[in-house]
Specification:
Blueprint (H helix, E strand, L loop, with lengths): L20 E14 L4 E7 L14 H15 L1 H5 L3 E6 L1 H4 L12 E5 L7 H12 L3 E4 L17 E5 L5 H12 L5 E5 L4 H9 L4 E2 L8 E9 L2 H11 L6 H9 L2 H12 L12 H23 L10 H21 L3 H17 L3 H4 L7 H9 L2 H15 L10 H19 L3
Parallel strand pairs: 2-3, 3-4, 4-5, 5-6, 6-7, 7-8
Antiparallel strand pairs: 1-2, 1-8, 1-9
Protein backbone atom coordinates (compact mmCIF):
# COMPACT_ATOMS: atom_id res chain seq x y z
CA UNK A 1 0.00 0.00 0.00
CA UNK A 2 1.35 3.42 -0.92
CA UNK A 3 2.28 5.53 2.10
CA UNK A 4 -0.23 8.30 2.65
CA UNK A 5 0.32 11.83 4.02
CA UNK A 6 -1.28 10.68 7.26
CA UNK A 7 1.50 8.14 7.73
CA UNK A 8 4.12 10.90 7.86
CA UNK A 9 3.21 12.72 11.05
CA UNK A 10 4.87 13.95 14.20
CA UNK A 11 7.37 11.45 15.49
CA UNK A 12 6.83 12.27 19.14
CA UNK A 13 3.73 13.55 20.87
CA UNK A 14 4.97 13.32 24.45
CA UNK A 15 6.45 16.27 26.34
CA UNK A 16 9.68 17.33 24.72
CA UNK A 17 12.82 16.63 26.76
CA UNK A 18 14.56 19.75 28.01
CA UNK A 19 17.96 18.80 26.61
CA UNK A 20 16.79 17.88 23.12
CA UNK A 21 15.79 20.43 20.49
CA UNK A 22 13.11 19.81 17.92
CA UNK A 23 13.51 20.40 14.23
CA UNK A 24 11.65 19.66 11.04
CA UNK A 25 13.25 17.42 8.47
CA UNK A 26 12.32 17.03 4.81
CA UNK A 27 12.81 14.61 1.96
CA UNK A 28 11.72 14.66 -1.67
CA UNK A 29 9.99 11.68 -3.24
CA UNK A 30 9.32 11.36 -6.99
CA UNK A 31 7.33 8.45 -8.43
CA UNK A 32 8.50 6.06 -11.14
CA UNK A 33 5.94 4.08 -13.17
CA UNK A 34 6.05 1.00 -15.40
CA UNK A 35 4.57 0.51 -18.88
CA UNK A 36 1.10 -0.17 -17.43
CA UNK A 37 1.15 3.05 -15.42
CA UNK A 38 1.56 1.24 -12.11
CA UNK A 39 3.68 2.94 -9.46
CA UNK A 40 6.72 0.71 -8.96
CA UNK A 41 9.44 2.89 -7.40
CA UNK A 42 10.37 6.23 -5.88
CA UNK A 43 13.49 8.33 -6.21
CA UNK A 44 14.44 9.98 -2.91
CA UNK A 45 15.86 13.50 -3.13
CA UNK A 46 17.44 16.06 -0.83
CA UNK A 47 15.13 18.94 0.08
CA UNK A 48 15.92 21.68 2.61
CA UNK A 49 12.34 22.84 3.29
CA UNK A 50 8.73 21.99 2.60
CA UNK A 51 8.46 24.41 -0.34
CA UNK A 52 11.76 23.53 -2.01
CA UNK A 53 11.47 22.64 -5.69
CA UNK A 54 15.08 21.52 -6.03
CA UNK A 55 18.14 20.62 -4.03
CA UNK A 56 19.86 23.59 -2.36
CA UNK A 57 22.79 21.41 -1.27
CA UNK A 58 24.58 18.60 -3.05
CA UNK A 59 27.45 16.31 -2.40
CA UNK A 60 28.19 13.88 0.41
CA UNK A 61 26.37 15.85 3.12
CA UNK A 62 23.12 15.97 1.14
CA UNK A 63 23.35 12.25 0.31
CA UNK A 64 24.05 11.49 3.97
CA UNK A 65 21.00 13.44 5.04
CA UNK A 66 18.77 11.62 2.55
CA UNK A 67 20.02 8.25 3.80
CA UNK A 68 19.71 9.15 7.49
CA UNK A 69 16.27 10.73 7.09
CA UNK A 70 14.95 7.89 4.95
CA UNK A 71 16.20 4.99 7.06
CA UNK A 72 16.36 6.30 10.62
CA UNK A 73 13.72 9.06 10.74
CA UNK A 74 10.82 8.49 8.34
CA UNK A 75 11.50 4.78 7.93
CA UNK A 76 12.03 3.45 4.42
CA UNK A 77 8.96 1.23 4.58
CA UNK A 78 6.80 4.29 5.27
CA UNK A 79 8.33 6.23 2.40
CA UNK A 80 8.27 3.58 -0.31
CA UNK A 81 6.32 0.60 1.02
CA UNK A 82 7.45 -2.51 -0.85
CA UNK A 83 8.53 -0.53 -3.90
CA UNK A 84 12.05 0.10 -5.15
CA UNK A 85 13.92 3.08 -3.79
CA UNK A 86 16.42 5.00 -5.97
CA UNK A 87 19.08 6.96 -4.04
CA UNK A 88 21.73 9.21 -5.64
CA UNK A 89 25.32 8.56 -4.60
CA UNK A 90 28.38 10.77 -4.86
CA UNK A 91 31.90 9.53 -5.46
CA UNK A 92 32.71 9.21 -1.75
CA UNK A 93 30.07 6.51 -1.30
CA UNK A 94 30.88 4.72 -4.56
CA UNK A 95 34.57 4.24 -3.74
CA UNK A 96 34.00 3.37 -0.09
CA UNK A 97 35.35 6.55 1.55
CA UNK A 98 31.94 6.96 3.17
CA UNK A 99 29.97 3.89 4.24
CA UNK A 100 26.65 2.54 3.07
CA UNK A 101 25.32 1.23 6.39
CA UNK A 102 22.56 -0.92 4.91
CA UNK A 103 22.22 -4.02 2.77
CA UNK A 104 20.90 -4.09 -0.79
CA UNK A 105 17.26 -4.95 -0.13
CA UNK A 106 15.06 -2.86 -2.41
CA UNK A 107 17.54 0.01 -2.80
CA UNK A 108 18.87 1.04 -6.22
CA UNK A 109 22.09 3.05 -6.13
CA UNK A 110 22.26 5.84 -8.72
CA UNK A 111 25.65 6.88 -10.10
CA UNK A 112 25.27 10.61 -10.64
CA UNK A 113 26.19 12.00 -14.04
CA UNK A 114 28.55 14.45 -12.27
CA UNK A 115 30.78 11.59 -11.01
CA UNK A 116 34.02 11.32 -12.98
CA UNK A 117 34.52 7.70 -13.92
CA UNK A 118 37.96 6.25 -13.25
CA UNK A 119 39.33 2.86 -12.23
CA UNK A 120 38.66 3.53 -8.53
CA UNK A 121 34.98 4.31 -9.18
CA UNK A 122 34.60 1.30 -11.46
CA UNK A 123 36.14 -0.97 -8.83
CA UNK A 124 33.89 0.48 -6.13
CA UNK A 125 30.72 0.13 -8.20
CA UNK A 126 31.58 -3.47 -9.06
CA UNK A 127 32.04 -4.25 -5.38
CA UNK A 128 28.64 -2.73 -4.60
CA UNK A 129 27.10 -4.82 -7.37
CA UNK A 130 28.76 -7.96 -5.99
CA UNK A 131 27.20 -7.12 -2.61
CA UNK A 132 23.79 -7.35 -4.26
CA UNK A 133 23.05 -3.68 -4.95
CA UNK A 134 21.28 -2.78 -8.18
CA UNK A 135 23.13 0.02 -10.00
CA UNK A 136 21.51 2.80 -12.04
CA UNK A 137 23.33 5.26 -14.29
CA UNK A 138 21.70 8.68 -14.01
CA UNK A 139 21.30 11.10 -16.96
CA UNK A 140 23.25 8.75 -19.21
CA UNK A 141 24.88 10.18 -22.33
CA UNK A 142 27.49 8.79 -24.72
CA UNK A 143 31.15 9.72 -24.54
CA UNK A 144 31.58 10.60 -20.84
CA UNK A 145 33.13 7.32 -19.65
CA UNK A 146 29.89 6.18 -17.94
CA UNK A 147 29.62 3.61 -20.73
CA UNK A 148 32.31 1.67 -18.85
CA UNK A 149 29.67 0.85 -16.23
CA UNK A 150 26.99 -0.44 -18.59
CA UNK A 151 27.97 -4.06 -18.06
CA UNK A 152 27.41 -3.80 -14.30
CA UNK A 153 24.31 -1.57 -14.34
CA UNK A 154 20.75 -2.81 -13.93
CA UNK A 155 19.10 0.50 -14.89
CA UNK A 156 20.00 3.37 -17.21
CA UNK A 157 18.13 6.67 -16.88
CA UNK A 158 17.87 8.73 -20.07
CA UNK A 159 16.44 12.24 -20.33
CA UNK A 160 13.75 12.61 -22.99
CA UNK A 161 12.45 16.20 -23.01
CA UNK A 162 14.71 18.59 -24.91
CA UNK A 163 16.89 15.81 -26.35
CA UNK A 164 17.26 15.43 -30.11
CA UNK A 165 15.21 12.34 -31.10
CA UNK A 166 18.04 10.80 -33.13
CA UNK A 167 20.52 11.34 -30.30
CA UNK A 168 18.11 9.60 -27.94
CA UNK A 169 17.66 6.73 -30.41
CA UNK A 170 21.44 6.23 -30.56
CA UNK A 171 21.73 6.18 -26.76
CA UNK A 172 18.94 3.62 -26.53
CA UNK A 173 20.58 1.48 -29.22
CA UNK A 174 23.86 1.35 -27.28
CA UNK A 175 22.03 0.32 -24.10
CA UNK A 176 20.04 -2.35 -25.93
CA UNK A 177 23.28 -4.25 -26.54
CA UNK A 178 23.40 -5.13 -22.82
CA UNK A 179 21.04 -7.97 -21.96
CA UNK A 180 18.71 -7.37 -19.03
CA UNK A 181 19.40 -3.64 -18.81
CA UNK A 182 16.22 -1.72 -17.95
CA UNK A 183 15.73 1.73 -19.48
CA UNK A 184 14.18 4.52 -17.41
CA UNK A 185 12.79 7.51 -19.29
CA UNK A 186 13.21 10.61 -17.13
CA UNK A 187 12.33 14.25 -17.58
CA UNK A 188 9.02 13.47 -19.22
CA UNK A 189 7.18 16.78 -19.50
CA UNK A 190 4.63 16.31 -22.29
CA UNK A 191 2.41 13.57 -23.68
CA UNK A 192 4.62 13.64 -26.78
CA UNK A 193 7.65 12.83 -24.58
CA UNK A 194 5.81 9.88 -23.07
CA UNK A 195 4.63 8.58 -26.45
CA UNK A 196 8.15 8.74 -27.89
CA UNK A 197 9.60 6.96 -24.84
CA UNK A 198 7.06 4.19 -25.25
CA UNK A 199 7.91 3.94 -28.95
CA UNK A 200 11.58 3.49 -28.07
CA UNK A 201 10.73 0.66 -25.70
CA UNK A 202 11.53 2.19 -22.31
CA UNK A 203 10.60 0.04 -19.32
CA UNK A 204 10.09 2.70 -16.61
CA UNK A 205 8.95 6.32 -16.70
CA UNK A 206 9.64 9.35 -14.52
CA UNK A 207 9.00 13.07 -14.92
CA UNK A 208 6.80 16.06 -14.12
CA UNK A 209 4.13 14.74 -16.50
CA UNK A 210 3.63 11.72 -14.24
CA UNK A 211 4.39 13.33 -10.90
CA UNK A 212 6.58 16.10 -9.53
CA UNK A 213 8.79 15.42 -6.51
CA UNK A 214 6.68 15.71 -3.40
CA UNK A 215 8.31 17.06 -0.26
CA UNK A 216 7.45 15.11 2.89
CA UNK A 217 8.13 16.76 6.25
CA UNK A 218 8.46 15.43 9.75
CA UNK A 219 8.89 17.01 13.17
CA UNK A 220 11.48 15.06 15.11
CA UNK A 221 13.81 15.34 18.03
CA UNK A 222 17.29 16.59 17.22
CA UNK A 223 19.96 14.27 18.60
CA UNK A 224 22.69 15.77 20.74
CA UNK A 225 25.95 16.20 18.82
CA UNK A 226 27.74 15.58 22.10
CA UNK A 227 26.17 12.11 22.17
CA UNK A 228 27.31 11.55 18.60
CA UNK A 229 30.88 12.46 19.50
CA UNK A 230 30.75 10.36 22.65
CA UNK A 231 29.45 7.37 20.71
CA UNK A 232 32.07 7.67 17.98
CA UNK A 233 34.81 7.88 20.61
CA UNK A 234 33.54 4.67 22.22
CA UNK A 235 33.20 2.85 18.92
CA UNK A 236 36.77 3.81 17.99
CA UNK A 237 38.04 1.95 21.05
CA UNK A 238 38.11 -1.81 20.50
CA UNK A 239 38.08 -2.34 24.29
CA UNK A 240 34.74 -0.61 24.75
CA UNK A 241 32.04 -2.80 26.24
CA UNK A 242 28.84 -2.88 24.19
CA UNK A 243 26.84 -2.18 27.34
CA UNK A 244 28.62 1.19 27.51
CA UNK A 245 27.68 1.85 23.91
CA UNK A 246 24.05 1.03 24.68
CA UNK A 247 24.11 3.36 27.68
CA UNK A 248 25.38 6.21 25.51
CA UNK A 249 22.69 5.64 22.90
CA UNK A 250 19.84 5.32 25.37
CA UNK A 251 20.88 8.54 27.11
CA UNK A 252 19.57 10.42 24.05
CA UNK A 253 15.97 9.66 23.05
CA UNK A 254 16.41 10.98 19.51
CA UNK A 255 19.59 9.02 18.90
CA UNK A 256 17.94 5.92 20.33
CA UNK A 257 15.09 6.29 17.91
CA UNK A 258 17.42 6.79 14.97
CA UNK A 259 19.37 3.65 15.81
CA UNK A 260 16.19 1.62 16.27
CA UNK A 261 14.81 2.88 12.96
CA UNK A 262 18.07 2.13 11.16
CA UNK A 263 18.25 -1.39 12.57
CA UNK A 264 14.60 -2.06 11.81
CA UNK A 265 14.76 -0.65 8.30
CA UNK A 266 13.54 -2.85 5.49
CA UNK A 267 16.91 -2.60 3.72
CA UNK A 268 19.21 -3.65 6.55
CA UNK A 269 18.89 -7.31 5.70
CA UNK A 270 17.39 -8.13 9.10
CA UNK A 271 14.29 -10.26 9.07
CA UNK A 272 13.16 -9.84 12.67
CA UNK A 273 11.75 -6.83 14.47
CA UNK A 274 13.90 -5.32 17.20
CA UNK A 275 12.33 -4.45 20.51
CA UNK A 276 15.15 -2.64 22.30
CA UNK A 277 18.12 -0.38 21.66
CA UNK A 278 20.39 -3.05 23.13
CA UNK A 279 19.09 -5.57 20.61
CA UNK A 280 19.58 -3.10 17.77
CA UNK A 281 23.16 -2.41 18.79
CA UNK A 282 24.07 -6.07 19.19
CA UNK A 283 22.52 -7.07 15.87
CA UNK A 284 23.96 -4.13 13.93
CA UNK A 285 27.43 -4.64 15.37
CA UNK A 286 30.19 -2.13 16.03
CA UNK A 287 31.19 -1.48 12.43
CA UNK A 288 27.72 -0.83 11.05
CA UNK A 289 26.75 1.25 14.06
CA UNK A 290 29.89 3.38 13.58
CA UNK A 291 28.94 3.82 9.92
CA UNK A 292 25.47 5.04 10.84
CA UNK A 293 26.72 7.50 13.44
CA UNK A 294 29.33 8.87 11.03
CA UNK A 295 26.63 9.54 8.43
CA UNK A 296 24.38 11.09 11.08
CA UNK A 297 27.10 13.55 12.03
CA UNK A 298 27.78 14.36 8.39
CA UNK A 299 24.09 14.79 7.59
CA UNK A 300 23.68 17.21 10.49
CA UNK A 301 26.23 19.53 8.86
CA UNK A 302 23.45 20.51 6.45
CA UNK A 303 21.19 22.88 8.36
CA UNK A 304 17.50 23.44 7.88
CA UNK A 305 18.27 25.92 5.11
CA UNK A 306 20.56 23.45 3.34
CA UNK A 307 23.62 25.65 3.76
CA UNK A 308 27.01 24.26 4.66
CA UNK A 309 30.08 26.00 6.06
CA UNK A 310 32.65 24.34 3.80
CA UNK A 311 35.73 26.11 5.16
CA UNK A 312 35.00 25.16 8.75
CA UNK A 313 34.14 21.57 7.93
CA UNK A 314 37.11 21.22 5.60
CA UNK A 315 39.45 22.49 8.33
CA UNK A 316 38.27 19.85 10.80
CA UNK A 317 38.12 16.99 8.33
CA UNK A 318 41.55 17.82 6.87
CA UNK A 319 43.11 17.61 10.35
CA UNK A 320 41.35 14.30 11.05
CA UNK A 321 42.24 12.80 7.67
CA UNK A 322 45.87 13.94 7.89
CA UNK A 323 46.23 12.28 11.30
CA UNK A 324 44.69 9.12 9.88
CA UNK A 325 47.09 9.06 6.92
CA UNK A 326 50.13 9.70 9.12
CA UNK A 327 49.09 6.98 11.56
CA UNK A 328 49.04 4.31 8.87
CA UNK A 329 52.74 4.76 8.08
CA UNK A 330 53.51 4.45 11.80
CA UNK A 331 51.43 1.32 12.35
CA UNK A 332 49.01 3.14 14.69
CA UNK A 333 45.23 2.50 14.75
CA UNK A 334 43.82 4.76 12.04
CA UNK A 335 40.31 4.98 13.54
CA UNK A 336 41.74 6.36 16.78
CA UNK A 337 44.00 8.77 14.90
CA UNK A 338 41.05 10.08 12.91
CA UNK A 339 39.06 10.60 16.12
CA UNK A 340 41.96 12.40 17.80
CA UNK A 341 42.41 14.69 14.80
CA UNK A 342 38.67 15.33 14.66
CA UNK A 343 38.43 16.35 18.32
CA UNK A 344 41.60 18.41 18.10
CA UNK A 345 40.28 20.28 15.08
CA UNK A 346 36.92 20.96 16.74
CA UNK A 347 38.64 22.33 19.86
CA UNK A 348 40.84 24.65 17.79
CA UNK A 349 37.94 25.87 15.69
CA UNK A 350 35.70 26.54 18.69
CA UNK A 351 38.54 28.16 20.61
CA UNK A 352 38.05 25.93 23.65
CA UNK A 353 40.56 23.93 25.65
CA UNK A 354 40.69 20.32 24.45
CA UNK A 355 40.21 19.18 28.04
CA UNK A 356 36.95 21.13 28.25
CA UNK A 357 35.76 19.76 24.92
CA UNK A 358 36.19 16.13 25.92
CA UNK A 359 35.38 16.53 29.62
CA UNK A 360 32.07 14.74 29.11
CA UNK A 361 33.50 12.03 26.89
CA UNK A 362 34.77 8.72 28.22
CA UNK A 363 37.85 8.21 26.08
CA UNK A 364 40.56 5.60 26.20
CA UNK A 365 43.71 6.88 27.91
CA UNK A 366 45.79 7.04 24.73
CA UNK A 367 43.13 9.04 22.88
CA UNK A 368 42.54 11.37 25.83
CA UNK A 369 46.29 11.99 26.28
CA UNK A 370 46.66 12.72 22.58
CA UNK A 371 43.79 15.21 22.49
CA UNK A 372 44.56 17.06 25.71
CA UNK A 373 48.34 17.15 25.83
CA UNK A 374 49.42 15.68 22.48
CA UNK A 375 51.12 12.92 24.45
CA UNK A 376 51.95 9.41 23.32
CA UNK A 377 52.25 8.05 19.77
CA UNK A 378 48.84 9.42 18.76
CA UNK A 379 49.75 12.77 20.30
CA UNK A 380 52.89 12.98 18.17
CA UNK A 381 50.73 12.48 15.09
CA UNK A 382 48.57 15.47 16.11
CA UNK A 383 51.66 17.55 16.86
CA UNK A 384 53.11 16.81 13.44
CA UNK A 385 49.82 17.55 11.68
CA UNK A 386 49.37 20.89 13.46
CA UNK A 387 52.99 21.89 12.86
CA UNK A 388 52.72 21.19 9.15
CA UNK A 389 49.40 23.07 8.91
CA UNK A 390 50.97 26.17 10.47
CA UNK A 391 54.28 25.93 8.60
CA UNK A 392 56.23 25.40 11.83
CA UNK A 393 57.68 21.97 11.14
CA UNK A 394 60.70 21.34 13.43
CA UNK A 395 64.12 21.30 11.76
CA UNK A 396 64.59 17.61 12.51
CA UNK A 397 61.42 16.83 10.54
CA UNK A 398 62.25 18.87 7.42
CA UNK A 399 63.47 15.78 5.60
CA UNK A 400 59.95 14.39 5.87
CA UNK A 401 58.37 17.48 4.31
CA UNK A 402 57.87 15.78 0.95
CA UNK A 403 55.95 12.89 2.45
CA UNK A 404 53.99 15.23 4.70
CA UNK A 405 53.15 17.51 1.79
CA UNK A 406 51.74 14.57 -0.14
CA UNK A 407 49.69 13.42 2.86
CA UNK A 408 48.45 16.96 3.54
CA UNK A 409 47.38 17.58 -0.05
CA UNK A 410 45.65 14.22 -0.08
CA UNK A 411 43.81 15.14 3.15
CA UNK A 412 42.80 18.54 1.76
CA UNK A 413 41.52 16.97 -1.43
CA UNK A 414 39.57 14.35 0.52
CA UNK A 415 38.00 16.88 2.89
CA UNK A 416 37.07 19.30 0.11
CA UNK A 417 35.44 16.49 -1.83
CA UNK A 418 33.42 15.62 1.25
CA UNK A 419 32.10 19.13 1.86
CA UNK A 420 31.94 20.51 -1.69
CA UNK A 421 28.92 20.36 -3.94
CA UNK A 422 28.88 17.60 -6.49
Amino acid sequence: MEPSPVDIGHMYTADRPVDCGWHRIHIGRQPIHDTTGELVAYELLFRSNARAEGASARGAEATSQVIVNAFSEFGLERLTGSRLCFINLTREFLVGELPLPFDSGSVVLEVLESVSIDDQVISGVRKLSEQGFAIALDDFILGNEHERLLDVASYVKLEVSGVDPEVLRSRVAVCRAYEGLLLVAERLETMEDLAFARELGFHLFQGYLLGKPRVLSLDTLEPSRLRHLELISKLADEQTDMDEVAATVTADPALSYRILRAANSAATGLWQRISSVNDAIMIMGTERLRHWVTLMLLSDVVGTDGNVEPERMSYILTRARLCQLLSKSLGLPSDKAFTVGLLSGIADLLGVAPADLISHLVLSEDVSDAVIGERGPLGSVVTTAKAYESGRLPDDRIDESGRLAHAYLSAVDWSMNIVASA
